[in-house]
Design goal:
Mean pLDDT: 85
Strand content: 15-25%
Number of domains: 1
Number of strands: 11
Shape: globular
Distance between the termini: 14 Å
Number of helices: 9
Strand order of the largest sheet: 1-2-3-6-7-8-11
CATH topology: Rossmann fold
CATH architecture: 3-Layer(aba) Sandwich
Radius of gyration: 25 Å
Length: about 325
């Protein structure tokens, strides 16, 4: 165990990322974490109301700070849902000439003929439905692409324990296959929208939780696929998990150096997947800006409102903190 602890510490210490060229912007961070709140409400509104058109302006978390922006698109993906429904299903019946010596079986055959060839039966149905994954805003001074956070337990449980896969654009770089598969479905529309953006102003890409993982992948993807935006991309990732291996983290920092990772030190999600997970190795990307808000459980420590309160109070910092030594070093 001590050997693995030392190995983990060594991996984290050896990671040399390209530092940001532009300082962390507290005012834009306040706006982006508010957008993450709106991303959550956009998703939930779409689930409850099929007629909802995705416009964030009519959501409860919308504030006048966004009045200078115009929403030009909503990002949509597919979601698996399961439900129990009673439906008619075909039940094969025995031929009348197929009688046996078993009176119980013969009676069953007669009963089947009496009720016909169908019965009603409760079955589990799996449906794939379109849902909102975020939105895109533009203004005269900035572009904003936001990915919404985790809203279903299965989004974590179905993805967090998967293996890494090769990141096809760069040799030796690997990324979490679950996050990769989710972003793959969103990539075409994200690229198409990004090509329409003004390349002379900053392009902020952001998200909370799962949205932070998707934003991390979108940032490097757009830096490669829409090169005119590359120098304008700024990544603000809140409460995000680790996405790829050290090679991916280094390439990411070279292509998207202006990347910031905002994290609650009492939040367990940014600690997953572990640095060493099975045969895979994970590293964070971005310059860390941290705060401490301990509410005694996973959900409140991770909630977007916890991050929003901290950012609005400007308590997140890039400075090293002095904590009592555990004696492990």
């Amino acid at each position: 165990m001590r050997k693995k602890i030392n190995q983990t510490i060594a991996i984290q210490a050896s990671l040399k990322l390209t530092p940001p060229q532009i300082p962390y912007d507290r005012s834009i961070s306040k706006l982006l974490i508010q957008c993450s709140k709106l991303g959550t409400q956009q998703y939930l509104s779409g689930k409850v109301d099929p007629s909802f058109n995705g416009l964030i302006k009519f959501l409860p978390a919308y504030t006048s700070d966004l009045d200078g922006y115009t929403q030009i698109a909503s990002l949509k993906g597919l979601e698996d849902v399961q439900s129990s429904e009673t439906i008619e299903v075909d039940v094969p019946t025995h031929s009348a000439n197929n009688t046996t010596q078993d009176p119980v079986e013969n009676n069953l055959d007669t009963a089947q003929e009496a009720i016909g060839h169908t019965v009603k039966q409760a079955v589990k149905l799996k449906q794939i439905i379109p849902v909102y994954f975020g939105f895109v805003l533009i203004s005269k001074t900035a572009n904003i692409i936001v990915f919404r956070g985790t809203q279903r337990t299965t989004e974590w449980l179905g993805n967090i324990f998967l293996f890494q896969k090769n990141y096809e654009d760069f040799a030796d770089s690997k990324i979490h296959s679950g996050f990769a598969n989710l972003y793959k479905d969103l990539a075409p529309q994200t690229r198409e929208i990004a090509r329409q953006l003004n390349p002379s102003i900053p392009c902020y890409i952001s998200g909370h939780s799962l949205g932070a993982a998707l934003a991390t992948l979108a940032a490097i993807d757009l830096a490669v696929s829409v090169p005119k935006l590359q120098k304008q991309i700024r990544l603000y990732a809140y409460a995000g998990p680790r996405v790829g291996n050290p090679s991916f983290a280094r390439v990411h920092s070279q292509l998207v150096p202006n990347s910031y990772r905002i994290v609650n030190l009492a939040d367990s999600i940014p600690l997953s997947p572990p640095t060493i997970f099975r045969n895979d190795i994970y590293s964070h990307v971005g310059q860390e800006w941290s705060f401490l808000a301990q509410y005694g459980d996973v959900l409140p420590n991770h909630a977007v409102d916890t991050y929003r309160a901290a950012v609005n109070k400007e308590v997140e910092t890039h400075q090293a903190r002095a904590y009592p030594s555990s004696g492990l070093a």
